[in-house]
């Protein structure tokens, strides 16, 4: 967004609570790699230029990428500046920080959608002997106690963490809820390549039937491994991970209750994967790729044991740690504008917030299906900066008219 505003000669500042790429520096596990290939990290005026376009960046490489981008575009970033409140006083927006106050005519809310880890309320019923950790503060298996580990959540984060912990020698039980299975490679290409060229990632928010549902869909079960392997539930059970259903609750006496829907969840996930690959196959046929691409080949169905456990007594001591990979929610505790819906989310239409002069960036499916990816930020920023520029121009014209009605106006009026 800063790059797009600079191109339009719009004076602005970027306030950052830490250093550039703060979240990537402080809230990611050590072995994590991007789930998108290097070539897909495309930002306005900046893209990958290395010799491994099909590889996946490590966390230090991601941090360097963003730091280099900020330096290359000379972004006016004020680091280590925490915003404590954003309000409108009738004249404009008043931004209070721990380093002073700012006033502006427009504001872009780009604090992200993954600020606070979602942990169910029944966590308070767990025995004190069980350590709780979220994907946000998990770093590596070495920080965990010896003994069994329950990983709750089977999307991209949960499957990767379960794989790593199981290989460390600890027995992992994975609690599986809604998830979307996906092959890393399909017909000789990265799945992200197919989704990119087929236009799936460019689908707009106003082209789907239920945008609320689309924005809550879990991330694909993809992992950016050096060998480009598929990390799905079959890969996990092959190394000894045990599957149970969604963790539905914990009783007062410390017993876990798992939903009996594991088989259905896995079947539905396989069905969704099949529909995605069917779409890709149809697109490939219609666009002349059948002669050059590898023939279609599908993964076998997800394997589920005949009678997965529906309960577990945490008091027996088999589980020493629970890792919550159950998603995140944004933190808007500092936002003092009347823009929230009943679920505490910012009301917006494709990033144009339901309050004049306010904009949103970095939310899932903000304007396109790829909005939550690095590759989607640039397109969203171009659209929203255009809207912002027009809004500023309209406001300036109105102010000029108001002043002209009162008398001469200086040409340098801001």
Lay out the secondary structure.
Layout: H1 2-7, E1 14-15, H2 22-26, H3 59-72, E2 77-78, E3 83-88, E4 93-97, E5 100-104, E6 107-109, E7 116-117, E8 131-134, E9 148-152, H4 156-167, E10 172-175, E11 185-186, E12 189-190, H5 191-197, H6 211-215, H7 233-238, E13 242-244, E14 247-250, E15 255-258, H8 262-286, E16 311-313, E17 319-324, E18 328-329, E19 348-349, E20 352-353, E21 358-360, H9 374-404
Parallel strand pairs: 1-2, 6-21, 8-17, 9-10, 9-17, 10-13
Antiparallel strand pairs: 3-4, 4-5, 7-18, 11-12, 14-15, 15-16, 19-20
Summary tags:
single chain; 2 domains; three-stranded antiparallel sheet; 27% helix; FAD/NAD(P)-binding domain; disordered C terminus
Task: Describe this entry's structure for a reader.
This protein is α/β, with parallel strands linked by helices. The chain has 2 domains: 2-115 and 330-404, FAD/NAD(P)-binding domain; 117-327, FAD/NAD(P)-binding domain. It has helices at residues 2-7, 22-26, 59-72, 156-167, 191-197, 211-215, 233-238, 262-286, 374-404, and strands at residues 14-15, 77-78, 83-88, 93-97, 100-104, 107-109, 116-117, 131-134, 148-152, 172-175, 185-186, 189-190, 242-244, 247-250, 255-258, 311-313, 319-324, 328-329, 348-349, 352-353, 358-360. Helix 4 links the parallel strand 9 and strand 10. The longest helix has 31 residues, at 374-404.
């Amino acid at each position: 967004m800063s790059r797009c505003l600079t191109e339009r000669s719009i004076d602005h500042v970027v306030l950052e609570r830490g250093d550039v790429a703060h979240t990537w520096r402080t809230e990611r596990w050590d072995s994590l790699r991007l789930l998108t290939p290097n070539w897909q990290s495309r930002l306005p005026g900046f893209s990958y230029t290395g010799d491994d376009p099909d590889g996946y960046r490590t966390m230090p490489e991601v941090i360097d990428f963003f730091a280099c981008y900020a330096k290359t575009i000379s972004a006016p970033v004020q680091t280590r500046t925490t915003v404590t409140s954003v309000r409108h006083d009738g004249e404009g927006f008043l931004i209070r920080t721990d380093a002073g106050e700012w006033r502006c005519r427009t504001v872009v809310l780009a604090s992200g959608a993954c600020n606070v880890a979602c942990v169910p309320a029944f966590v308070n019923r767990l025995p004190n002997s069980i350590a709780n950790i979220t994907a946000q503060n998990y770093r590596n298996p070495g920080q965990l106690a010896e003994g069994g580990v329950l990983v709750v959540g089977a999307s991209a984060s949960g499957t990767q963490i379960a794989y790593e912990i199981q290989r460390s020698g600890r027995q992992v039980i994975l609690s599986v809820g809604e998830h979307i299975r996906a092959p890393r490679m399909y017909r000789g290409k990265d799945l992200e390549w197919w989704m990119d060229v087929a236009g799936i990632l460019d689908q707009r928010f106003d082209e789907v039937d239920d945008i609320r549902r689309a924005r809550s869909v879990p991330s694909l079960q993809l992992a950016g491994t050096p060998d480009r392997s598929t990390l799905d539930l079959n890969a996990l059970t092959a190394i000894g991970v045990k599957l149970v259903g969604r963790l539905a609750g914990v009783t007062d006496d410390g017993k876990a209750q798992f939903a009996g829907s594991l088989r259905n969840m896995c079947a539905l996930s396989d069905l969704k994967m099949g529909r995605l690959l069917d779409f890709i196959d149809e697109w490939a046929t219609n666009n002349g790729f059948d002669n050059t691409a590898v023939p279609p080949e599908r993964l076998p169905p997800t394997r589920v044991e005949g009678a997965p456990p529906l309960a577990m007594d945490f008091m027996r001591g088999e589980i020493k740690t629970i890792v919550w990979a159950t998603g995140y929610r944004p933190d808007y505790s500092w936002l003092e504008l009347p823009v929230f819906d009943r679920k505490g989310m910012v009301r917006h239409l494709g990033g144009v917030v339901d309050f004049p002069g306010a904009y949103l960036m970095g939310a899932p499916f903000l304007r396109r299906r790829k909005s939550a990816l690095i590759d989607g930020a640039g397109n969203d920023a171009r659209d929203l900066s255009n809207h912002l520029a027009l809004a500023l121009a309209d406001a300036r014209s109105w102010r000029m008219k108001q002043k002209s009605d009162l008398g001469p106006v200086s040409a340098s009026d801001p």
